[in-house]
Design a protein that fits this description.
The chain contains 21 helices and 9 strands. The chain is mainly α and 468 residues long. It has 2 domains: 35 residues, no CATH class; 425 residues, Orthogonal Bundle (Cytochrome p450). Strand 7 and strand 8 form a beta hairpin. The longest helix has 30 residues. The protein is globular and about 65 Å long. The chain binds protoporphyrin IX containing FE (HEM).
Length: 468
């Protein structure tokens, strides 16, 4: 009773905060629940109240929980208060219909390159194990081309040297050890550490080069670049700007890294999960295929106008992300007492006390059976009537995902092309049922770089219209 009077929440007290470096890096066990900690705040309506009012209540994103991004510099995801407003003011204008049309165009071009470079051209059927690398590569190329105007291609640029994509992958996989290990460790004669250090240095070098080149390009031909108005041009322009529209060099680099990672691992995880489920749920795949045939004229490329009519395909992507939310937990510190209305188990008002830290458990929210009945089942139709801006996997309120439409546009275009050309299927182990397969393969989820997604999936592809 004494503890309750000071708002102590009863339950287990582990030695490390599950969100501390030690909590995350030490093996998960009975004394260190790590990221398996049963987080609370799992109710969509309560979370929407909390985040929807963020502009007024001035919730704070705890810096130490976005330190993997802050290693590169201040950025839109980590920033708070006036700094957040400044970054958002500079970057929000790049998310326009022109950008989304470019996403459609580049997705089509990249899809065609993928078919040729993966040697799928001219084949009627294929088995692809470890399919996950394909959407990862795909989404990286799209953010690099559409957000940064970098001419990245499907194949690695120069064999033998570390490419930008490789360096980015190592960096997002190794953010936690990098935060913990002191600098002298990298001088030890241990190859793994040397490779890790090289990847971080290579990525930094690439990003500084990109900034220098774009500054030069803008100086040479300002009109073309400013008209293009892509994310990177606005970032680099802000480097030379002042006050409300200015960014420091470290903020330009911080945002470059943040958008490169936030703009590709998340969408790639969503695409993997969508294809993984559609291969199991053949009736949902057939519905998606019919919708694509009915919406996009045969033999023509998708357009921004017709992909936005693919209601079922979009619902499949949202549903896969509901089961595996790519942004797995959102965190906020509460600076003032905040009353929230709760509907269950009884209607009442609860007060989040000033000084508390909120952990918004995106897996818990999206598996809450009150909001999503039969939560473990893949049921795309539950998203049919949900307006696009209300899809909770992208967060809520003023800090909801700035890249939602970018990601939806890319995913819809990719899925339209892919599902129109290929029927996808799973390969069962001997004597295995679809249910057991689903548990075995789709049941394995975890960290994918800095995002969250399904484990390795393998797919069988059969060409829809056989080559003659
Ligand atoms: C399936 C794809 C994606 C998912 C599930 C996703 C999820 C989220 C979520 C849940 C948030 C809110 C974080 C919070 O409230 O703490 C967020 C914010 C953000 N996302 Fe995404 N995202 C996706 C794609 C993208 C893309 C493609 C980009 C960039 C092109 C992007 C850039 C960002 C940025 C910069 C923020 C911070 C916005 C701010 O604080 O003002 N995301 N995302």
């Amino acid at each position: 009773a004494a503890l309750r009077s000071v708002n102590y929440i009863p339950g287990m007290r582990p030695p490390f905060s599950p969100l501390s470096l030690f909590g995350a890096i030490l093996p998960t066990s009975w004394w260190n629940p790590g990221l398996n900690w049963p987080w609370e705040l799992r109710k969509t309506d309560v979370v929407k109240q909390l985040l929807g009012n963020e502009g007024k209540t001035h919730l704070v994103k705890p810096e130490e929980l976005t330190s993997a991004l802050l290693l590169w510099g201040d950025n839109l995801v980590s920033a708070n208060g006036e700094m957040w407003k400044r970054h958002r003011r500079i970057l929000a204008p790049t998310f326009t219909p022109t950008t989304y049309s470019l996403v459609v165009k580049e997705t089509i071009a990249t899809y065609k390159e993928m078919i040729i470079n993966e040697n799928w051209d001219g084949k009627d059927s294929l088995f692809i194990s470890g399919f996950n690398r394909i959407p990862l590569r795909f989404a990286l190329i799209i953010i690099a081309r559409c957000g940064f105007g970098l001419p990245m291609s499907w194949t690695e640029e120069q064999p033998g040297t570390m490419s930008f994509g490789e360096a980015l992958a190592v960096v997002s996989e190794t953010a936690i050890p990098r935060l913990i290990l002191p600098n002298w460790v990298y001088k030890l004669p241990i190859k793994k550490l040397k490779d890790l250090d090289r990847a971080w240095a290579t990525l930094a070098k690439f990003m500084h080069e990109f900034v220098d080149t774009r500054r030069q390009d803008i100086a040479n031909d300002r009109e073309t670049f400013v008209q293009r108005g892509d994310l990177f041009t606005r970032l680099v322009e802000a480097y030379d700007g002042e006050g409300k529209l200015g960014l420091e060099e470290q903020e330009v680099i911080g945002n470059t890294f943040t958008f490169m990672f936030a703009g590709h691992e998340t969408t790639a995880c969503g695409l993997n999960a969508t294809l993984g489920f559609l291969a199991i749920y053949q009736e949902e795949q057939e519905k998606a295929y019919r919708e694509i045939l009915d919406t996009i004229p045969a033999g023509e490329d998708p357009t921004i106008e017709n992909i936005t009519k693919l209601r079922h395909v979009l619902a499949c992507f949202n549903e896969a992300l509901r089961i595996y939310p790519a942004g797995v937990m959102l965190t906020r510190d509460v600076p003032v007492d905040i009353p929230l209305k709760v509907a269950r188990p009884v209607e009442k008002t609860i007060v989040l006390k000033a000084g508390s830290r909120m952990i918004i458990d995106m897996v818990g929210i999206h598996h809450n059976p009150h909001t999503f009945p039969n939560p473990d089942k893949f049921i795309p139709s539950r998203w049919y009537e949900v307006p696009e801006h209300d899809v909770s996997i992208f967060g809520a309120g003023p800090r909801a995902c700035i890249g939602r439409k970018f990601s939806h546009t890319e995913a819809l275009t990719f899925l339209a092309l892919f599902l129109r050309e290929w029927k996808i299927d799973i390969v069962l182990a001997e004597g295995e049922s679809r249910e057991v397969y689903e548990e075995r393969v789709m049941g394995k989820a975890g960290r994918v770089g800095l995002a969250f997604g399904v484990g390795e999936i393998s797919l069988k592809l059969t060409r829809r219209v056989a080559l003659s």
